[in-house]
Amino acid sequence: MRRLILQLILSTLPVYTYAASTPPPVASALSTALHQIVQGAHANGNFDGVVVVSQHGKVVYSEAVGMADRAHAVPMRVNTVFRLASQTKQITALLIMQEVVAGHLELNEAARQVLPELAPSTGRVTILQLLQHVSGLPNPSDGPDNVVPAFYLRSGRDAADNTKSALDFCSGAPKREPGLMFEYNNCDYLVLGALLEKVTGKSYAALVQQRVIEPLKLKSWGVFPADPNRAPQVAVGYSADGTVELPQNVATYGAAGAVYGNALDLAQWDEALLAYKLLPKAATTVMFTADPKLYGEALGSWAYDAKGANGPIRVVERQGDIGGTRLLNNLLPDQSASIVILANTERADLFNTYSKQGLGYELLKVVAALQ
């Protein structure tokens, strides 16, 4: 029955026709063009970080510029580890879809059917509404600008506990009825993390380890531990004015933002998604299908068509930022390619691809041959 539901969901989704796959550009010409863009952004003070471009499962360009830690003169390297921030949400969405395919979850079932301990108001929200950020749940990021909310300052054993967060803060008074409006909200994915832990009997960190890190042999990836003293060394984030970011405990982001790793391994994750190594094609199609009423929101990503020389080119985009760390991960299914950009400065302009501006768009334009 659950597999039938998945088939019915697929039958109601719009079908996108991708342009025919094109051979990769000459590597030297592509590398030269990308190098010039990256170096230009760095020279203008707008980018310190790492860029990795892959095509057909192979890295065709990688470059690191700037400093990973300015105070200690630690240079940025291609294998520098970053907080992957909301890239974590794409990982969580995949884990959810794995459970849907296995028949353990249904996208349209209420969260409380899976986790009865949730408050009645929270439990009315469906798994699909959580994935699409239309839950109406309280938002832990609400608060004044330039102040880290108390939610992200928590420490102790429960700091990284998705279920604890779901049953405490995220089960507070909802902001509105579910399904009424889109609002980006980390509570959505913290609750999803709690659902995964309930149906599998495993911690979120263990699921990422067993279902993603081990199969793909991602040596740099992991999930931040609750104790900040045991956290891995990552690139230091810097505010737009060059000051060090405000401290916070990244473990508190849980299934919404607590994964760390380097750009090379993120490119390998992208290749696995495009090659359906972790999720069947039909379920991946569900995961990458946008709802135009929700600003192009798919499940754990955004998806949109860019204008290419030979027709529309599908872009599946994942953005992320925590403190001074910024991330843009663009997958190009028609070209079997991906572009990973990790930055440790708020000056990096990565989030304006839709408006055709910034470093993220300039790199996408070259790799995808956009008009």
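(ticket continues) Second input and output from the same batch:
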Amino acid sequence: MLTVKMNRKPYLGVAEQMIDGIWNEFPAILKQDFNDWNKKFSVPVNVKESATGYQIELVAPGFEKTDFRIDLEKDLLTISGEKKEELKEENEKLLRKEFQFRSFKRTFTIDEKIDATGIEANYVNGILLVNLPKKAVLKPEAKQIEIK
């Protein structure tokens, strides 16, 4: 004798699988958003090294030189920017506003290889360039020692 089991609710399994799939992915979505929050509200940075020093390139279009502040306290270099939006009363009707300026703050640890007195910054075409020169390494002079 053959026994056949009937599934009276064929769509219940599909719905459970969809709900389980969404529920299992839900924490990963939250985790991704919370881990990337700093990237979303910060500015991108490139750090380059050359023979004479380091260069930090910080992309911040729309800012002006006066919107930046660079502080050096002990071994922490902090670069921050704040753009204040001015509300203008115009007769034009704003249909869509997709961009806005946000303040940011980035902190970098510098070591004893950096000459803190020679740090310079320039803002050109939306990119803030911060030059961190290396300290000059004094090599001991080779000398001949006289034997007595």
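Agent notes: The CA atoms of residues 62 and 126 lie 6 Å apart. The chain is about 20% helix and 30% strand. Closing as not reproducible unless the customer responds.
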